Amino acid sequence: MAALPQIKRLQVEDFPTQQSWIGKMFLVLNGFMDSVINSLNHGLTLAANTTSQISTMTVIAAPSQSSPIKPAWAGKSCPAGVIVLQCVPTNRSFVAQTVPTGVQWTYDSQGGLQITNLLGVTPTNSLPYLITFLIIGG
To answer: Which helix (H) or strand (E) holds 102?
Structure first.
């Protein structure tokens, strides 16, 4: 990723015909731009700025309604989404996938987060998968 350009502050002098009103706007806008650029240049992270959580687990059978995968979710409410970040066989063998990997999931306050269908792969006892999920807070 390319580095952000050096901060260039908006100057009233650059807009001579609007000097009577533009200074107040630039005061707010320059402060906002400084904050955004500083955040991006100094490691803006998902963990520090969202209620997301990453959960990695070994899966040895395809999930179902009666036997779901239950990744840890410390959130206090229903997640906004669950994304598969990585899905590899535990033996690191190559398995050609013909469709994208995804999940179907449900949430209830008693049972928590439950993945009821894994799309794109079929884990088994003889070919378990190590799956990393990104659970995005709602």
So the answer is: strand 102-108
Burial of 117 (C-beta count, 10 Å sphere; 0-12/13-18/19+): middle
| Token pair for 98 | 């013909």
Residue 52 and residue 135 in contact, taking contact as beta carbons nearer than 8 Å: yes
92/127 Cα distance (integer angstroms): 10
For residue 45, give the amino acid letter: T
Domain limits, the chain = 12-41, 47-136
Q: What is the mean pLDDT of residues 16-29?
A: 91
Pairwise CA distance, residues 15 & 10, whole Å: 9
Residue 84: pLDDT band (50, 70, 90) is very high
For residues 69-93, average pLDDT? 89
